[in-house]
Amino acid sequence: MLVARALAELRSHCTTLRERFGALTLVPTMGALHAGHMALLRAAAAREAGTVVSIFVNPLQFAASEDLTRYPRDEPGDLALLAAQGCHLAWLPDVATMYPPGDATSISVEGPALRWEGEARPGHFRGVATVCARLFAQVRPDRAYFGEKDWQQLQVVTRMAADLLLPLEIVGVPTVREPDGLALSSRNRFLTAAERQTAPMLSAALEAAAHKLAQRGGAGPVLADARANLLLAGFAVDYFALVDGPTLAPLPEARPGARLIAAARIGSVRLIDNIPA
Predict the structure, then answer these.
(1) Annotated catalytic residue, options 13, 37, 88, 124
(2) Which residues of 85-110 are buried (b: 16+ CB within 10 A; e: fewer)?
């Protein structure tokens, strides 16, 4: 596996891979890799293109109230996982490479970025859109792969790429879960043993709500019951909502393309999850 830490290295390696495979795929990550990331890499590799995985903990997408230094980092472990999975190129830029001195441009996003995570984490999606646009410009992939676990992020990046006429396809990959339903996340490692036992109740609440929505008309009582049950279980609920999948606009009842989305905190860990409604 090739490793690049400077733009000149990256461009040289990307040119070589494109000549070899005819196309490039990109999996953007912030490291602390797990089986969910490996599913993205496998999906990318299935297209028989050169596979590039970026590892960059993006300071621009952390709010002032969030601890950037607490985000888990394990570069040796990440590189070993990528090599074992057959990744062709790991891209590890530093902050100065991604945001050089004098940097004055970022991407403002609206539409699917306005609610939910956008309200809970002001500036978050501006940071996501900006770093993704720069990664796309650096690697110039034909396709980029994102997990559906971060559903709103997937829609924001998809909308940005379409609006800016970026010459790549954004591909969503289904959420990878533990056997008990908990969506895989780099932050799950911060759950205590007791919190880990409680955490799957979030995905269970989504599944129960989806089942009820299939039997009833209005979403209001179903969503209220789900929030109440999570509060009783010890969660602090940021939101539990039924939305239109592409736009993230709230919906009064389930319909084709609808999504149930949720964010809730258990202890010090904030969990997000979603399923089709």
Answers:
(1) 37
(2) bebbbbbbbeeebbbeeeeeebbebe
